[in-house]
C-alpha cells in the first residue's frame, strides 16, 4: 500500500520533474514569441494570463502543435514551434503533436489542385514517421507523459453531419470572410469553395478533441487558433491560449525559408552541410537565428560577425548531431571527391562508383532504387538521374545509406 | 417460364397502366406551372425538354417532392405541388415524397430559434403520418410503383465529414451569397451562420440519393433545385428537371395563404367549413384557385361569379370528401348549436357539454386531454381553454373525435 501525501499529488501521478509553481521565471516562454493571446484585461477580473495559468496549474498543461503530413523533409523554419514545444516539455507540460492525416487522406475535394493530392494511409504514416525522426533531436520523446502523438482522423472520421452542422453553426459567413486570405480573395472575386470554411473549424475541433490548453503556431495561425477557442467554449471547455511564433527568413536573408526557394537548412542535411550553410548567414539575420533556433543568451554573443556565424553553426549542429559532429567538421571530417575525374554529362550511378561510395555503377543503380542515395539530404529515386555539367554539383554532399558521405568539389 | 416480348418490357416489370409514349398531350404538365427548367437551348444539341423526356423515357420517371415534417396541419396552398405530383402519377411516373426528418431532428444548431426546435424521432414520425393522412385524398397510394415515401435521415445520418467536404466543395461562397435571401442578409450585415450553407446542399443530396428525374417546388425553391442538379452531375447522374409552382394567395385575396394569418383552408377542416370558406373567395382569385386546385377546364367556368364560387366549393369538397359530402352540405348537414344558451366567459369543456357533444363537462375535459377535440380542424389540448365572449366562436366548427361536429352560431 502506498501512502500519498496530499500536497505531493502531482509527483504521485507523474515521476517527471514537473516543476510546479516553482518555475516562475518565464523567459523561456517569451523568447522569440510574437504574441500570446488572450492577454488579461483590467475590465475582466476572471481573465488570466498564460503565465499565471502556468504558475498555478495543478496538472501538466496540454500544448498542441498541428503537423501537416503531406511533405517529408523539414527545415529549421519548421523547427521553431517544435523548439517552443520542447520548452513547455522541460517546464513539465505535455506536448500534443497532432498529425493532420484526415485532411491529407481526403486531398483536395475539388480535384483541381495537384499539390493537395490524396495520400494513402500508408503514405501519411510514412510521412508522419519521417517527421518524427527529424524532430527527435528537438523533443523529449523519453520522459513519461511528456509527448502525445495523435492522428486527427481518430475523431474527424467519426464526425457525422449533425456534429458538422453544429461546428458550422458556431460561426457566421461574415466572420469567416474577415479572415486574412479569404478577405482578399472575396474582394478580388477569386472563388472561395465552401469546404474551405470547414478547415479552420476542423483544426479548431482538434483542440476540443485533445482538450488543448495552449496551441502553438505561426503568425498566420491566429485566426484558426481563435476558432479553436470558440469551439472549446461551445463544447464547455476552458478555451486554449494561442502562442504565435514568427516565420524564419531563409539563408538568403530575403524571403521566408522554403524548400522551393532553395534558401533552407534541412534537418536531414549532413552536419557538415548545415555547418557550411549556417556559417554563411547574413549578419542581419543572426539575432533572429540565435533567438529562435538556440537557447544562448543574446546579450553575450561574440562581437565579431564571423565569430557569431561560427557560433551559430556550432550550436545548431551540436543540437542535432552532438558536439562530436562539430569537432569532426572542424577537424575536416568530410571526404572530398574531385569531379575533375568524371566526364560530363554523367549519370549519378556512375558518380557513385567513381567517388568510391559504390563498387560499380550497377551497385549505384541498385542503391538509388532501394532509396539509399541522397544529395544534400534529398532522396534521389530516379536511377537515370544525370548531370550536364560538373558545376551543378560543386559543394554538394552525396550520401549513401546513413553513414557514407562525400563532398563533391571541382 | 414467361416469354417477354422485347418491346413490351415495361409492362413486364410494372403492371400499372404506364402510358409510355402515348401520353403526348402535356396540358396536365403545364397547368398552373410558373417555370420548368432547364429549357432546351438551340445552341446545345444535347439538351432535351422535359416534354421530350416524358415522351421518350423507357421507365417511370422519379418525381421528387420534399416535405418539412415540423408542422402537423396543412392547407390548400401546400396541396398545389402534391396535386402536380398526382398528375405525374397518373401519367405513369413514381412520386418520391421525401420526409425531411434529418433536419427536423437536429433543430436549429445555434439554439437561437424557438421555431426550429429539435423534434424527437417519434414526433417526426407522428407529423409525417399526419401529413400522409392529409394528402391521401390527393395522391395515388394504391397503384404499385406509384409512390415512394423516404426519410432523408436514411442517407444524411450516414454522411461523414469526407463526403460533407465533397458536397461543400462543389460550390463557392459567391454562388451561395448570390442566393435570394442570403444576398439581402449579407448586404444588410445580418448574420448568416455557416451551417445555413449546408441546407441547400443537403436538399440537393436528397436528389442524388433518390436519383430524382424531376423535382417539384414553389418558386422560392429554384436555387435549391438547381443545387440538386449540380450535385447529381457531380456524382455522375443525369441532372433533374425543376418544376416551379406558384404560392397560393389566401382567402383574403391579399397575402400568401398561411395558418398564422388565418386566411387558409385546412385540409383537416370539416367539409362544411371548407365549403363555406371557398364560397367566399374573392372573385379575382377564382381563376388561380380553379387552375391550381382543380382539373376543371378554365374556359368553361360559369359566367356568374356566385356560380363560380359555388362550383369551386363543390369541386374541392368533392376532391377531399366525395360527392356525398357536397350533397349533405347543400342539404344542410351540420347541426348548429346556439351559443345564446351559454353564459360567457365559458370554458370549452362546458361548451362541449352544453352542445350535446359530451355528456358532462368532465367528459369534455377528458376528451380535450386525450386530443379528441378540434376547433376549425385545430386540435385543442389545454383543458382550461376558455372564451371571453360568444362572438369569438360565431361560425366556427367544434369537433369531437372523427365524426361528431356542431357549428357554433349566435
Describe this structure in words.
- 2 copies of one chain form a homodimer.
- Chain A folds into 3 domains: 19-245, Rossmann fold (3-Layer(aba) Sandwich), CATH 3.40.50; 262-334, no CATH class; 339-410, RNA-binding S4 domain (Structural Genomics Hypothetical 15.5 Kd Protein In mrcA-pckA Intergenic Region, Chain A, Roll), CATH 3.10.290.10.
- Chain A is built from 18 helices and 13 strands.
- The first copy, chain A, has helices at residues 9-13, 27-30, 50-56, 76-90, 101-106, 121-135, 153-156, 161-169, 173-177, 182-187, 198-210, 222-234, 271-279, 283-293, 305-321, 323-330, 348-354, 361-369, and strands at residues 35-37, 62-67, 94-99, 147-151, 214-218, 241-245, 336-338, 346-347, 373-375, 378-379, 386-387, 397-400, 404-409.
- In chain A, the strands form 3 sheets. In chain A, strands 1-6-5-2-3-4 form a 6-stranded mixed β-sheet, with helices on both faces. Chain A has a 5-stranded mixed β-sheet with strand order 7-13-12-9-10, with no helix packed on it.
- The longest helix of chain A is centred in the last third of the chain and has 17 residues, at 305-321.
- Chain A starts with 8 loop residues before the first helix and ends with a strand.
- Chains A, B: A motif ('HIGH' region) lies at residues 69-78.
- Chains A, B: Pfam families: SYY_C-terminal, tRNA-synt_1b.
- Chains A, B: Homodimer.
- Chains A, B: A motif ('KMSKS' region) lies at residues 256-260.
Amino acid at each position: 500500500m502506498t501512502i500519498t501525501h496530499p500536497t505531493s499529488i502531482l509527483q504521485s501521478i507523474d515521476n517527471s520533474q514537473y516543476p510546479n509553481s516553482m518555475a516562475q521565471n518565464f523567459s523561456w516562454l517569451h523568447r522569440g514569441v510574437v504574441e500570446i493571446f488572450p492577454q488579461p484585461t483590467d475590465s475582466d477580473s476572471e481573465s488570466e494570463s498564460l503565465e499565471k495559468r502556468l504558475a498555478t496549474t495543478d496538472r501538466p498543461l496540454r500544448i498542441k502543435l498541428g503537423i501537416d503530413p503531406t511533405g517529408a523533409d523539414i527545415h529549421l523554419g519548421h523547427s521553431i514551434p517544435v523548439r517552443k514545444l520542447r520548452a513547455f516539455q522541460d517546464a513539465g507540460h505535455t506536448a500534443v503533436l497532432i498529425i493532420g492525416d484526415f485532411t491529407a487522406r481526403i486531398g483536395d475535394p475539388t480535384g483541381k489542385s495537384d499539390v493537395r493530392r490524396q495520400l494513402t494511409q500508408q503514405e501519411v504514416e510514412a510521412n508522419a514517421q519521417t517527421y518524427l525522426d527529424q524532430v527527435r533531436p528537438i523533443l523529449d520523446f523519453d520522459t513519461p507523459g511528456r509527448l502525445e502523438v495523435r492522428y486527427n482522423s481518430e475523431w474527424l472520421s467519426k464526425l457525422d453531419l449533425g456534429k458538422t452542422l453544429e461546428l458550422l453553426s458556431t460561426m457566421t459567413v461574415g466572420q469567416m470572410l474577415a479572415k486574412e486570405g479569404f478577405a482578399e480573395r472575396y474582394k478580388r472575386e477569386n472563388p472561395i469553395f465552401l469546404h474551405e470554411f470547414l478547415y479552420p473549424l476542423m483544426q479548431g475541433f482538434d483542440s476540443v478533441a485533445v482538450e488543448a490548453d495552449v496551441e502553438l503556431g505561426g503568425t498566420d495561425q491566429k485566426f484558426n487558433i481563435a476558432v479553436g477557442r470558440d469551439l472549446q467554449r461551445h463544447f464547455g471547455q476552458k478555451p486554449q491560449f494561442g502562442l504565435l511564433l514568427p516565420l524564419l527568413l531563409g539563408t538568403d536573408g530575403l524571403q521566408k525559408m522554403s524548400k522551393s526557394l532553395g534558401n533552407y537548412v534541412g534537418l536531414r542535411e549532413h552536419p557538415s552541410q548545415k555547418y557550411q550553410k549556417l556559417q554563411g548567414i547574413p549578419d542581419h539575420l543572426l539575432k533572429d537565428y540565435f533567438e529562435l533556433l538556440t537557447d544562448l543568451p543574446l546579450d553575450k554573443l561574440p562581437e565579431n560577425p564571423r565569430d557569431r556565424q561560427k557560433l551559430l553553426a556550432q550550436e545548431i549542429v551540436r543540437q542535432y548531431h552532438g558536439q562530436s559532429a562539430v569537432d569532426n567538421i572542424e577537424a575536416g571530417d568530410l571526404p572530398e571527391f574531385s569531379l575533375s575525374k568524371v566526364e560530363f554529362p554523367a549519370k549519378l550511378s556512375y558518380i557513385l562508383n567513381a567517388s568510391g561510395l559504390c563498387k560499380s555503377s550497377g551497385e549505384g543503380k541498385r542503391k538509388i532504387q532501394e532509396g539509399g542515395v541522397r544529395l544534400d539530404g534529398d532522396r534521389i529515386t530516379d536511377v537515370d538521374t544525370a548531370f550536364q555539367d560538373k558545376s551543378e554539383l560543386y559543394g554538394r554532399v552525396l550520401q549513401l545509406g546513413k553513414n557514407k558521405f562525400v563532398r563533391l568539389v571541382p
